[in-house]
Specification:
The protein has eleven helices and six strands. It is of the alpha+beta class.
Length: about 280
């Protein structure tokens, strides 16, 4: 069947697929555009299935804030080359825009969200996989609901954070705390909401270290417990957001003190962070 260049270009404009892929699809579909589009979609699913076990260590991490809502989402791919492609970046931004508008509860629900072009997130990601031959996936998605939020995306686009506050905060301080989250990777907002499993793991580690220390041989269990708790206090200071040294200043003040100076009534309620480099 004779397939004209204009026909190929028309299908390319409809699907965004490569010229050769469009030509092959039109030949197989005997010139039927609807069938050709279906063939291209099926190719995307096939490529996705073949590359399902591939790691997606590159991509784009994005944030959006709208009133009391904030989202953090990552569209992942396999290589830096693909992640810098304009079409990939456009899809990542389209997903972020749709996510903040629909505000789905989790990554599974995000798959069904409809983009501005009428495709679902799941369909668009699968089609992009077919176009590039690389695995594409929504690698991370999280939401925050708070009276006031701040966000930070690192210049490389591979790490970002969103932070929820109890009330409006000086934008510079709020952004500084979001940067703190992105760069220092705290385990929780404060000691009191540090996950129990993290605390238990740290305590177990300290006790095992002391058992291997000849100087601790024969020490009462109660004493070892107290020493472990002392070490845990240092862990909280270094790894919980409010107790960490504020990195945007001189490093002498804790985040909680910097926030209190800006507004003594303001509180950090929650945060989300994602990094493709972790």
């Amino acid at each position: 069947m004779d397939i004209k260049a204009a026909d190929v270009m028309k299908l390319r404009q409809m699907t965004g697929a490569g010229m050769m892929d469009c030509k092959k699809a039109l030949i197989e579909a005997e010139g039927d555009y609807n069938r050709a589009q279906e063939i291209i979609r099926e190719k995307g699913k096939l490529v996705a299935a073949k590359r399902a076990d591939r790691e997606t260590t590159e991509g784009a991490v994005l944030t959006r804030i709208d009133g009391d809502k904030a989202i953090l989402v990552c569209l992942g791919c396999e290589t830096d080359f693909v992640s810098k492609n304009a079409e990939f970046q456009a899809l990542a931004n389209a997903i972020a825009d749709a996510a903040i508008a629909a505000f789905p509860a989790d990554a599974e629900a995000l798959k069904s969200v409809v983009l501005a072009d009428g495709r679902t997130v799941e369909a668009a990601v699968t089609e992009q996989t077919g176009k590039t031959g690389e695995k594409h996936v929504v690698a991370y998605y999280a939401t925050i609901s708070a009276p006031f939020s701040a966000a930070y995306v690192h210049h490389n686009g591979k790490v970002a954070s969103v932070v929820g506050f109890s009330k409006a905060v000086d934008p510079e301080i709020a952004r500084g705390i979001a940067i703190q989250v992105a760069t220092m990777n705290p385990v929780s907002v404060s000691e009191k909401d540090c996950p129990a499993e993290v605390v238990a793991k740290e305590m177990q580690l300290y006790k095992e270290q002391m058992k291997e220390d000849p100087k601790m041989a024969g020490k009462p269990e109660a004493m070892l417990e107290q020493i472990a708790k002392g070490k845990l206090g240092k862990f909280f200071k270094e790894n919980t957001l409010l107790d960490q040294a504020y990195q945007m200043g001189d490093g002498k003040e804790a985040v909680k003190d910097v926030l209190a100076k800006a507004d003594k009534e303001a509180q950090v309620l929650t945060f989300k962070r994602f990094s493709l480099s972790d």
